[in-house]
Amino acid sequence: MNASSATLLRRLRALERAAPSNDLAQALKDSRIGLEKESLRVSPTGRLATTPHPAGLGSPLTHPHITTDFSEALIELVTPALGDCAAVLDFLADIHTLVYRHLGDDLLWGTSMPCVLDGARTIPLARYGTSNAATMKTVYRRGLGNRYGRTMQLIAGIHFNFSFGDRFWRLYRDQEGDRGDLGSFRSESYMAMIRNLLRLGWLVPYLFGASPTVCRSFVQGRDTDLAPLDANTLYYPYATSLRMGDIGYQNQQEQGTGLKANYDSLDAYIRSLTWAIETACPQYERIGVKVGNRYEQLNASVLQIENEYYSTVRPKQIIDWLEKPSLALRRRGIRYVELRSVDINLFESLGVGTEQLLFLETLMLYCLLSDSPRISPAERRAIDDNQVRTAHRGREPGLTLNRDGAPLELRRWATQTLEAMAPVAELLDGAADGPRTQSLRRQRNKAVDPDCTPSALMLAELRATGESFFALAERYSSAHRERLRTRTLSPEREVLFDELAADSNRRRAAIEAADDLDFDTFLARYFAQGRAVD
Questions:
Q1: Which CATH class is domain 3-252+334-528?
Q2: Looking at the predicted structure, is the pLDDT value of residue 1 above 60?
Q3: Which pTM value belongs to this model?
């Protein structure tokens, strides 16, 4: 038994001893799950939609559940944090149904990798109105396009947000013998959990990766070693998730900038991101900040703002209006953890299903209770390499990853990890063969047989039908649209969505009316937050 397994079993037993089973069960039920799903709007011709975000959905600047990401055509659907996987998926389905009422013949693209693209210049940046806050959001996106290219920003995904409730944190703190502040204990425990999620980050794209192929139009003349599957489709034969590989912009961020987030503690994490936001980067200085009368980026620093740093996992705190995320973390600690490595699954009408959410919930508790030493520079390099190897070659027979400085076959590591998660699943289920245990069993089948993974199933269907990636994605996306737009919303949801749309428009108008600063001053004040003693 290794140190991590011994720590896990000790903590599991201690939790069970520390409270009556009903108290522990109730504490675990206080956990909350939320989803953020990005989806491209695609026109009937199969191209990226060039129409504005539908006005009937409300303002993307202020709507809590329907907004946009990089592009006006990249819609983002956000659920509230709820205590049950079924409730989260039901809310997500309702948002889809509402959105489809306003899309006409457009589709929500059902995969992470984009539809047919006609070049970066045709990709419209998201627009949020005339306020300073709206301008800042658009300028940030213009900066992303200038730094990494607009095409890369159209890769869509799902973010899984998770938190434990206060009752659980009190039980866990007492079991660990910590007598300090509950908020500090919670934040540092979340950071330990994040370190383990980084170590096991490769497991999510292996089990659930669903982007082994891409439309040829995505690479648009760039050098690549992707192989042709057909005249219009590129792929790697054993790929699981091209989205999580090195064809995206995430790895480019760290080349030449010296940027590495530090996960040793919450304070170290905040300091590393603050350094990046306040430190000029020569390659971004060449772009310019305000060129003529137009801002090309928010600044020429290593990061414009915290959200630019790409990581598979982030510590998060709910922010006040126009509050810097790092300042929110410093003031109030970690509220929840955001796992960003989830592909959109073409075979699920919502892009994600119950089985996956149950597994991710189990993974969160497993990573919290396992031993979590600090990540050394050598281990950080191994973490990055393991992710790319799994993304590009995860189903390759005999593929090895780096664990603790030594090679270990991916399938063996996956099997060992999934077996070690069994008591955690049973604890969450409150029974020996509950839904999380059943989900875990299906994931073990994937470790034994990679042909059961979504990426393998997708390639198998492409070969069986002779379709291109685009044709397959369009066919499934159209089927999902028909199912989702014919659903009926409850009267309560109808009222809720009507009120949210109207309220978002009122809030946007109020924000615009309240602006009393020029944008230069507004931006300077935004970045000055936290420099004085709060």
A1: alpha beta
A2: no
A3: 0.96
